[in-house]
């Protein structure tokens, strides 16, 4: 379907259709209505590649991601990655991940020289960060999460780390804890330094000398040993009764050591974290943590970078956004509901009185006000995003429309003046000939060299010639060969990762390992997060018709037959991880066998009443996301019970949304029943952690009265001593990436279905039924 077909159906010229689609030129209301009706009835999709050429934009933003963010425990920056991808998507941009192992400067220069992206996003900054210096000298739009040095552009968004840490101290003291220690990373990073300084400020604000408190600075290797030494004092009065940490990850280590020493979190020992990551919600008792508003920060960072495309260098000061203390039972009290938020925005500290019921009520009242303010802010941001998206759909920002209309607007940036289309080779149906650059040249009445200069963004083309070539590209549906362009420019191809629920711990590990392989193989990577069918469809529509990626690695993303056919028609290589897509190379585990393994382990320990907590059934794509892993693990559970001669009881099976809080509710229902189970198999570690939380709240000891087994073996499982079925998460992501690279090299991938091994990790959460002091009826 071409723009000429729309023009013919609407009874107007091609230029009128172009004006309607781009929001430019004068078009009468009646003609506009006819064009839009024709676009809808014919199912026409504008050629975004040609539109990018007209605006001299690639619609891609590079995120330069340090390798430390690929570590499994760096939850908050992995959430930030997802938030960035979502913020870019709302603005009509794809995000290209750059994760070089060494100096990122070479990779950044390559992207600049090849005109592959419109702007850069940075994080994990140093005071005189060489990446910022490079981009400033090159005149390239950028924005940062974290502060730049005083002599550099202040295009950054951050929180006040020092004030936030001070308020955590203030809260702990207000709760009645007195012997406070600090646990942070031994690091030169400014945020680690500021959080340690904030701890000292918090003590000083209450008239306490920092000399009276232990301050431990550790690395990951030494953390556990130093925490154990700190908490192993012979008398309670010699050890701290509260630890303020500089990260949720360190707080998790404190929880683990405290459990080994039989110290009760929230009673014998208060603990605070810093980040407010998803990991904080998986700890039990729930961790009190400074919550970094990564969604808001990502939205602001992307907006600041894109604003520079139209308005030139960012002259505004950096932005400090408020962080809030999310309260949990890890500091005692505040036990109603998940994720309560303290009243005080941590833009500064203040004196607090002694912990009291009145103070608690006041804090919770103000917390409700904060949540209402946050809801209003989210609505405002959503309206802003919708307006920005509407503007993009009508032809882009005013600067873009002016460029398309031929206005001679002098660019204020020394940035690249062309677009690099990430268009992959297309396999057309039999009998259809692929449109070539020669066809475009003949249609436009110019030479092949002129078309090539237009495609490569050359300024040596007259405006009238540029328009003629672009009209021919759009009318003929010409797709530039990304492979040929890559050979000319010496740049690699582009691969897209489409990931369902990117920040789930299991998928974080898969994505990290896949990115490492793709970086090693020299591929640019676009990361797309999917939280629902509409998002999935939007990403497919953006990637396939426009050939913005040569290959796609789909992680936990079942696809319909029609969707798989779209890949074949577009000639885009597809490989699947953790989803059985027919006819596609896939790397999977046997979830049914995993369910049998977990349940058989509990049966072997003497359990007969075994509960199951898992996901609700999902509709098949395209209407639903089509997840089957939890359902297959349930099948394995039922098979193991049947093989042991144990009747399957529907009342012992609970299914719902994939969430620790929901799993806790379901487990509580089972444990409060007249004849509770002696063991529960949860379909994921996240849900198993919810089961552990419910047992603790109800006073059901694990493993004495309840055994619990999960599935995945995420990092938190080891911290909590959770027995689980281990699947090789990192290997699955790496193997999926390797198999996709092989397909892109033209190699045949065999076997089509690659099944990875699973195994049982028996830890402290499961034990023989006789240790529980009672046996359930079979």
Tell me about this structure.
By secondary structure, this protein is of the alpha/beta class. The strands form three sheets. The chain has a twelve-stranded mixed sheet, sandwiched between helices. α4 packs antiparallel against α18 (463-476), α10 crosses α11 (248-260) and α20 (505-520) packs parallel to α28 (729-744). The N and C termini lie far apart (64 Å). Mean pLDDT is 80; it is low at 334-432, 482-492 and 771-778.
Summarize the structure.
By secondary structure, the chain is of the alpha/beta class. It contains 28 helices and 25 strands.
Helix content: 40-55%
Question: What is the CA-based Rg, rounded?
Answer: 28 Å
Shape: globular
Span between termini = 64 Å
Strand arrangement, major sheet: 11-5-4-3-1-2-15-14-16-17-18-24
Instruction: Please give the number of β-strands.
Output: 25
Structural class: alpha/beta
User: What is the helix tally?
Assistant: 28
- Percentage beta strand: 5-15%
Low-confidence stretches: 334-432, 482-492, 771-778
Give a quick account of the main beta sheet: strands, pairing sense, barrel closure.
Answer: 12 strands, mixed
Mean pLDDT: 80
């Amino acid at each position: 379907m071409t723009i000429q077909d729309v023009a013919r159906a609407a009874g107007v010229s091609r230029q009128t259709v172009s004006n309607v689609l781009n929001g430019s030129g004068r078009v009468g209301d009646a003609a506009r209505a006819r064009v839009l009706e024709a676009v809808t009835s014919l199912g026409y999709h504008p050629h975004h590649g040609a539109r990018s050429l007209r605006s001299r934009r690639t619609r891609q933003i590079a995120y330069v991601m340090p390798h430390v963010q690929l570590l499994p425990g760096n939850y908050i920056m992995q959430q930030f990655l997802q938030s960035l991808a979502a913020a870019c998507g709302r603005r009509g941009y794809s995000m290209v991940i750059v994760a070089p192992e060494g100096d990122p400067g070479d990779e950044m220069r390559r992207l600049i020289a090849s005109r592959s992206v419109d702007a850069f996003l940075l994080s994990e900054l140093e005071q005189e960060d060489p990446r910022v210096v490079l981009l400033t000298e090159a005149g390239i739009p950028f924005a940062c999460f974290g502060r730049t040095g005083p002599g550099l552009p202040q295009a950054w968004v951050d929180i006040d780390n020092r004030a936030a840490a001070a308020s955590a101290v203030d809260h702990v003291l207000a709760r009645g804890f007195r012997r406070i220690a600090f646990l942070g990373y031994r690091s030169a990073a400014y945020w680690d330094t500021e959080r340690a300084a904030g701890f000292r400020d918090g003590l000083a604000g209450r008239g306490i000398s920092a000399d009276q408190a232990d301050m431990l600075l550790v690395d990951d290797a030494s953390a556990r040993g130093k925490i154990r030494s700190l908490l192993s004092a012979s008398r309670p009065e010699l050890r701290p009764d509260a630890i303020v940490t500089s990260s949720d990850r360190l707080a998790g280590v404190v929880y683990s050591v405290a459990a080994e020493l039989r110290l009760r979190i929230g009673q014998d020992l208060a603990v605070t974290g810093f980040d407010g990551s998803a990991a904080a919600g998986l700890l039990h008792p729930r961790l009190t943590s400074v919550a970094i508003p990564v969604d808001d920060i990502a939205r602001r960072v992307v907006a600041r970078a894109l604003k520079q495309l139209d308005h030139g260098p960012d002259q505004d000061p950096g932005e400090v956004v408020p962080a809030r203390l999310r309260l949990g039972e890890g500091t005692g009290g505040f036990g109603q509901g998940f994720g309560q938020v303290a009243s005080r925005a941590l833009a500064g500290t203040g004196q607090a009185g002694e912990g009291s019921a009145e103070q608690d009520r006041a804090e919770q009242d103000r917390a409700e006000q904060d949540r209402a303010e946050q809801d209003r802010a989210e609505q405002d941001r959503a309206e802003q995003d919708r307006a920005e998206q509407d503007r993009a759909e009508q032809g882009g920002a005013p600067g873009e429309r002016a460029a398309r209309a031929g206005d001679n607007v002098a660019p204020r940036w020394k940035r690249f003046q062309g677009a690099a289309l990430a268009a992959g080779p297309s396999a057309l149906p039999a009998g259809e000939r692929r449109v070539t650059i020669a066809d475009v040249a003949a249609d436009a009445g110019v030479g092949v060299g002129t078309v090539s200069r237009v495609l490569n963004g050359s300024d040596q083309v007259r405006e009238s010639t540029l328009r003629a070539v672009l009209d021919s590209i759009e009318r003929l549906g010409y797709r530039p060969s990304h492979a040929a362009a890559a050979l000319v420019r010496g740049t690699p191809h582009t691969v897209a990762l489409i990931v369902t629920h990117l920040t789930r711990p299991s998928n974080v590990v898969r994505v990290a390992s896949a990115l490492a392989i793709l970086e090693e193989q020299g591929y640019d990577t676009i990361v797309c997060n999917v939280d629902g069918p509409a998002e999935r469809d939007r990403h497919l529509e953006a990637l396939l018709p426009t050939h913005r990626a040569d290959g796609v690695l789909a992680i936990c993303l079942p696809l319909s037959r029609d969707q798989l056919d779209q890949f074949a028609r577009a000639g885009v290589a597809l490989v699947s991880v953790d989803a059985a897509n027919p006819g596609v190379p896939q790397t999977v585990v046997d979830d049914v066998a995993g369910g049998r393994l977990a349940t058989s382990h509990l049966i072997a320990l003497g359990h007969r009443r075994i509960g199951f907590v898992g996901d609700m059934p999902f509709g098949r794509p395209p209407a639903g996301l089509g997840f089957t892993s939890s359902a297959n693990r349930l099948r394995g559970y039922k098979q193991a019970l049947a093989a042991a001669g144990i009747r399957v009881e529907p009342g012992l099976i609970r299914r719902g949304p994939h969430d620790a809080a929901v799993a806790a509710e379901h487990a509580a229902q089972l444990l409060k029943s007249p004849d509770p189970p002696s063991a529960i198999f949860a379909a994921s570690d996240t849900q198993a952690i919810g089961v552990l939380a419910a047992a603790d709240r109800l006073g059901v000891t694990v493993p004495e009265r309840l055994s619990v087994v999960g599935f995945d073996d995420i990092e938190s499982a080891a911290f909590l001593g959770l027995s689980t079925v281990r699947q090789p998460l990192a290997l699955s992501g790496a193997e999926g990436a390797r198999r996709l690279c092989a397909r892109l090299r033209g190699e045949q991938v065999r076997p089509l279905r690659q099944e990875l091994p699973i195994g049982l990790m028996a830890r402290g959460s499961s034990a023989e039924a006789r240790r529980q002091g009672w046996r359930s009826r079979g």
